[in-house]
Amino acid sequence: MSDNNLKTIETAALEALAACTDSASVEKVRVSVLGKKGELTLVMRTMGQLPKEERPAFGQMVNDTRRVIENALEERLNALRAAEQAARLEAERIDVTEPAAEIAQGSLHPLTIVQEMLEDIFISLGFSVADGPEVELDHYNFELMNIPKEHPARDMQDSFYFSPNLLLRTHTSPVQARYMTTHEPPIRIICPGRVYRCDEVDATHSPVFHQMEGLVIDKGIRMSDLKGTLDEFAKRLYGPETKTRFRPSFFPFTEPSAEVDLTCAMCGGKGCRVCKGTGWIEVLGCGMVHPNVLRACGIDPEVYSGFAFGLGLDRITTIKYGISDLRLMYENDTRFLSQF
Ligand code: PHE
Fold first, then answer.
1. CA 166 to centroid of ligand 1, rounded, Å
2. Could you give the CA distance from residue 117 to residue 202 in angstroms, rounded to a whole number?
3. If I label 232, which of 60, 69, 99, 181 is the partner at 20 to 30 A Cα–Cα?
4. pLDDT beneath 70: ranges in the chain
5. Mean pLDDT over all residues of the chain?
6. Which fold has domain 110-337?
7. d(Cα 107, Cα 215) in Å, to the nearest integer?
8. Are strands 254-263 and 135-137 parallel, antiparallel or unpaired?
């Protein structure tokens, strides 16, 4: 075994290392030179064949060679690892300044927008918002509203019944009944919500639609309070030029009763397609709360009086946005909904 041989191994190992392009190939070089069956290891094993006195010098030479190769290995490995890490970091790099993919944002349903708008108007007039169940007892939906069984007015409101005493509410009046039976006057509430009637679906009818009813009860409430309140509401809804028109009507739960028209917001009363040339649009039913209703709900009609009104949110919404078909509001088509 000569110096030369060790030098050859060393040179070959260093060349092999220089040619390595990744840490795995460095490991291969390590195994082939320094591993159990590696070239240098085999050389070391031949030491036993040498005369005793030559062994220390030989061992020293082999160890020197081993150290040189080990150092080169480590150096190469470090360099390659650093390069690999740099490459990985570069590949995984996130450009935080890059514009993000747009996140589709939802929007409010037009009915919700209008409901909130009307709530704001009435809240600013001193009303609070009351809520009640959509699956309602006949007792609240009809009985307390002065619509006893067999009353012809029940025909006006073809209803979805679950059982003789349970139905989908046909108006939001039962919310008022529930409120009156649990609260002392003065009462000043609005009750917005979904209501249901057996109706065929077409451009202007839907078996589910939305109402907002209002109720005011106190001592000395008169028809003029009703007119003043609805007049103010109309002006805040469609602008200060808006006029109201009260026409006598009938509801079982109010007496006297009226239907209310507002000057058409589209044409300002001149007559257009929306108001069918009349200059007016009908938006409300209203009246003074019937004494039978007050009494049934535990309020003394000799002491208190009140007014109530009900308006259709769907109609106000279709007019406000020029929506020609009611069905659009119930189909959840995002092409329609994203416009609001
Ligand atoms: N509850 C009535 C309806 O659904 C609306 C209304 C409420 C009318 C209050 C007058 C007074 O038609």
1. 20
2. 26
3. 181
4. 1-3, 153, 155-157
5. 91
6. BirA Bifunctional Protein; domain 2 (3.30.930)
7. 31
8. unpaired
Which of 240, 253, 198, 246 minimizes the C-alpha distance to 226?
A: 246
Q: In Å, how far from its chain's centre is CA 91?
A: 36
Sign of CA dihedral 69, 72, 78, 81: negative
Predicted pLDDT of residue 274: 80
Q: Which residue's C-alpha comes closest to atom 2 of ligand 1? A: 310
| Run of H or E including 307 | strand 305-312
Residue nearest ligand 1's atom 5 by CA: 310
Other CB atoms closer than 10 Å to residue 156's CB: what's the count? 13
Residue 156: the pLDDT is: 61
Q: What is residue 155's predicted lDDT score, i.e. its pLDDT?
A: 67
Please tell me if the CB atom of residue 209 comes closer than 6 angstroms to any atom of ligand 1. Answer: no
Q: Which residues of 187-226 are buried (b: 16+ CB within 10 A; e: fewer)?
A: bbbbbbbebbbeeeeeeeebeebbbbbbbbbeeebeeebb
User: CA 43 to CA 59: how far, in whole Å?
Assistant: 10
Q: Are 246 and 227 in contact (CB under 8 A)?
A: yes
How much is the pLDDT for 227? 97
Q: How far is the CA of 309 from the centre of ligand 1 (A)?
A: 6
Do residues 134 and 169 lie in contact, with contact meaning Cβ atoms separated by under 8 Å? Answer: yes
List of residues 6+ apart from 145 with CB closer than 8 A: 173, 174, 177, 252, 253, 293
Q: Is 302 exposed, middle or buried (0-12, 13-18, 19+ CB in 10 A)?
A: exposed
pLDDT digits (tens, 9 = 90+) for 48-68: 888 889 888 888 988 999 999
CB neighbourhood size of 272 (10 A): 15
263 lines ligand 1 (CB under 6 A): no
